[in-house]
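Batch 3, record 17
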Amino acid sequence: EPEVTQTPSHQVTQMGQEVILRCVPISNHLYFYWYRQILGQKVEFLVSFYNNEISEKSEIFDDQFSVERPDGSNFTLKIRSTKLEDSAMYFCASSELELPTNTGELFFGEGSRLTVL
Amino acid sequence: AQSVTQLDSQVPVFEEAPVELRCNYSSSVSVYLFWYVQYPNQGLQLLLKYLSGSTLVKGINGFEAEFNKSQTSFHLRKPSVHISDTAEYFCAVSRRGSQGNLIFGKGTKLSVKP
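Prediction for the assembled complex:
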């Protein structure tokens, strides 16, 4: 069964360093997303991406964050200068069809745990 | 703005017992409703969703949920749970017209004991 894969599964970084989290969405999907979950808190929407541009983003997704689809398979989240409060589990997701007016659903990866020291 | 409240952070039950995981939402606009499950060390997986039509929706693994507009609830139920249902369950809403911007509850950890 096709799945969304994320790397790394866990990354530890120093405050102020740049981090890139990588995702390989399901191959025929057109919409891509990043969510995050700070320990003990809710899963929060960060950004959605379609046709090589951001279609929607939350207040969390400030100038420190960027997303890119550098080739036909990868979808990346970059955090330019990490802060302690960026420590979280980051989930990538993809969907085939436009949500949510049809049977399309979000398929999530297993997450990348980011620890900022 | 939308918000989701899952009243129970943890629900312990015995195998073969029925279970209900509660979810309430608030929104000033029409929403779609979802339940996701997260098994240990795995990603979030869609259990079921309500988009329109019948208020009782059936999902995978024998789960069902009922949309109650007057009570703004979308409780998840299963008549008889298995050990394998042990997982964290997340209720989520999205505003109609929003592309994948799901608002999640804090999750409910279901622990099924033998």
